[in-house]
Design a protein that fits this description.
heterodimer, A: mainly alpha, 14 helices, about 75% helix, B: alpha/beta, GMP Synthetase, Chain A, domain 3, 2 domains, six-stranded mixed beta sheet, four-stranded mixed beta sheet, about 30% strand
């Protein structure tokens, strides 16, 4: 049970970490009214894919994703999982850079970016190298520290909120579904991680549902707080709408009158856990596809983390980071869909084979 | 085992490197922290930027002003940075005073607001005020006044609404928002340096998407506050034969759309307390008079703002769910000038 709670916490942290930056911009670019529809559709697709994915996994109660794909054959496993691993390396690197930029903007304007990147990187790698159990335990700690900050941010924004800035109408028909940006939006749900966890601690459907709903309430708040404060015409002109929204809050009687500090601190906690989880997944894939015989289990991680650091330090400019991040999100959506569906189909196929086998 | 202990000790020693703190950090006592920033632009192309910096070292706080000229605000900030003895820390700026002739130039004003909003160092919750005087005089005026703190200009705006119900504050982010919002315009307080006090409140300038359209009096400003449901408790109204103080105010509105013409009927409830009155004046008379004064004030302001298409009350906001978005975008020009308003005031003596 504790494992499951920890896993749920990791799931929430992953989503929180990705949703603060870029996600609101993406949603605003999709529609001018009824932004909640975008979030709802995203939620619908995520839960649909998640159901397919979990169903696929349930055909193989003793295996995780890598093992299932290895059953299909090593070539197929490399074909399906390597793109995922390569994309994850890119994603972690860009995530690291984006957060570094935000931290620089928030409270370390004169510190060179590489030092912050390396600091964030080292903590993530250290956590990841220590294994998934360490990640789980540390995630609970970070969650307990970050959650009050996040909630405080949400509730304190109340002082500037004007509900009349937003129209609460239906968008008919939802044209944004065909927009390429919506494809990227789906990528903001990195739930494939759940498949790499040892099968004993898999989340039940009910738990997945509860966690997903809480994540989507949070997504809604991230999208709507800047909207309520600035209105739909203004948010599209801002670089980091949520960050700016936090910066507007002025509670003079409160001793910590810079909300952005809290925001920045919670970002650091979230990004460390999120990156270490993703790094661990990448390490698992590389390790088990290519170096199954070797004794040291962290070699795969070391290879992938070196790539991450190189990529993170090499990306030249902020606009490039954002562009590549979106592409990476697109690939993530693609691999999520492909892996979920192929798992599901392979599961059905295997089951039939078994039945035929039993009849004989 | 022994080896790992040595390693651990080594790690701990390496950690001492970090004791020096963050990168390029300056201690608080080696920083100058300006509180108020004044921006003006006289005929020529150069911006003139004035900062009011408190000097905390002496016992009775004094301040000084630093002025620099440059082709851009960022350039001026940089020049001050270069020439000052200490490291400049702009993150505590609380008030930005803009000279009127700069605010009058629509393009320049828009660019200025966009710069202030985009700047990472200047907080976007700093307040904005406009002055028709020379900004430098306004900021240095504080030094001539006896017994006034260095933070007086900032304190002036942060008295709290109960202490000065008429005064109101507009932060940068709200001005920035008004550049894009299609259903609400903004008023920015107007101040000048006083003879006896540091600042004098003179009403406010109203802006339509960054364009200065009119100037309104303190009483009219207060009316806008009431429409935004801000409490103006403590405001004293002089009615000629009596003086009353407002103890509570609330507004309720109903909106409707008939034949593409917007209708609003609002009721303003005022609770008042009589401070003084001439002999023989009844309560009824006082209530009637107050209602009449407020009503007249409102209709004058409404027709004035309808003429220059500036929805200073934010009535358009109430039509968010009545008029579809693409049409509401043209609220200022197509709906607001034809808005039909029924305004009732109900005054009640406690």
């Amino acid at each position: 049970m504790t494992y499951r709670i920890q896993l749920g916490v990791v799931f929430i942290i992953l989503h929180l970490s990705f949703s603060y930056i870029i996600y609101p911009n993406l949603v605003y670019s999709l529609t001018r009214t009824a932004h909640w529809e975008v979030v709802m559709w995203q939620g619908f697709f995520q839960i649909l894919l998640l159901l397919i994915f979990l169903r696929g996994l349930s055909y193989f109660p003793k295996n995780d994703v890598v093992e299932i794909f290895l059953k299909m054959g090593k070539g197929i496993a490399i074909f399906f999982l390597m793109p995922l691993a390569i994309n994850l390396v890119g994603l972690i690197a860009l995530n690291l850079r984006i957060h570094t930029d935000v931290i620089t903007a928030l409270f370390l304007p004169r510190t060179p970016y590489w030092s912050i990147t390396i600091l964030l990187f080292l903590i993530s790698v250290y956590t990841a190298v220590n294994g998934f159990k360490t990640i789980l335990r540390s995630s609970v700690f970070i969650f307990l520290i970050v959650l009050p900050l996040v909630l405080f941010n949400l509730f304190s924004s109340y002082v500037n909120i004007d509900i009349e800035n937003v129209q609460t109408v239906w968008n008919s028909p939802p044209k944004f579904l065909l927009d390429i940006n919506f494809f990227y939006v789906i990528g903001f749900s990195p739930f494939l991680v759940l498949g790499f966890v040892s099968s004993k601690v898999r989340l039940t459907l009910q738990q997945v549902f509860i966690v997903s709903i809480s994540v989507f309430l949070f997504f809604l708040s991230v999208v709507y707080i800047p909207l309520f404060i600035f209105g739909p015409e203004t948010v599209v002109t801002l670089n980091d709408p949520f960050l700016e929204a936090m910066d507007t809050i002025d509670i003079s009687w409160f001793s910590f009158n810079r909300q952005t500090m809290f925001f920045g601190l919670s970002l650091i906690g979230l990004v460390i856990v999120a990156n270490s989880v993703l790094l661990w997944v990448t390490g698992q894939i590389i390790q088990r596809l290519f170096m199954y015989g070797t004794q040291k289990k962290s070699y795969g991680m070391i290879v992938s983390s070196t790539c991450v650091l190189i990529v993170a330090l090499l990306v030249p400019s902020q606009s490039m980071v954002k562009k590549y991040f979106l592409w990476s999100m697109g690939i993530q959506t693609y691999s999520t869909i492909v892996i979920s569906i192929s798992l599901f189909l392979y599961g059905i196929f295997k089951q039939r084979e078994m039945k035929i086998h039993e009849k004989k | 085992m022994k080896r790992s202990k040595i390693y651990k000790a080594l790690v701990v020693f390496i950690l001492t490197i970090f004791l020096s703190g963050c990168w390029d950090i300056k201690d608080v006592n080696k920083r100058s922290i300006p509180l108020v920033m004044g921006i003006s632009k006289e005929g020529d192309k150069n911006f003139e930027l004035t900062l009011q910096i408190p000097i905390p070292k002496s016992e009775n706080q004094v301040s000084r002003t630093v002025t620099e000229r440059s082709g851009s605000i960022a350039g001026a900030l940089g020049k001050i940075q270069t020439n000052s003895e200490n490291a400049m820390d702009y993150s505590q700026i609380q008030l930005i005073v803009i000279q009127k002739n700069l605010a009058r130039n629509e393009q320049e004003f828009k660019n200025l607001i966009k710069f202030l909003m985009g700047s990472e160092e200047i907080p976007s919750r700093a307040l904005v005020a406009i002055t028709s005087e020379n900004v430098k005089n306004v900021l240095s005026n504080i030094n001539d006044k006896l017994g006034v703190h260095a933070s007086a200009i900032y304190d002036y705006f942060y008295k709290g609404s109960v202490w000065s119900p008429e005064l109101f504050s507009t932060p940068i982010w709200a001005v920035y928002r008004s550049l894009f919002l299609s259903t609400k315009d903004i008023a920015i307080p107007s101040v000048r340096s006083g003879k006896d006090t540091v600042l004098v409140f003179e009403g406010s300038y109203i802006f339509k998407r960054g364009k200065l359209t009119d100037r309104i009096s303190p009483e009219e400003t207060q009316l806008i506050n009431m429409f935004n449901n801000k409490k103006i408790k403590g405001k004293i109204e002089t009615l000629g034969f009596a003086s009353v103080v407002i103890t509570d105010n609330s507004i309720s509105s109903e909106v409707s759309l008939k034949n593409d013409i917007a209708h609003i009927s609002s009721t303003l409830d005022l609770e008042i307390h009589v401070l003084e009155k001439e002999d023989g004046v009844t309560n009824k008379q006082i209530e009637k008079k107050l209602e009449k004064v407020n009503k007249e004030r409102f209709y004058t302001l409404l027709s004035k703002t309808q003429k220059n298409n500036t929805d200073i009350f934010g009535f358009g906001q109430q039509f968010q769910n009545v008029i579809p978005y693409p049409k509401l975008y043209h609220w200022r020009n197509e709906y607001y000038p034809h808005l039909k308003m029924k305004f009732k005031v109900k005054a009640k003596i406690e």
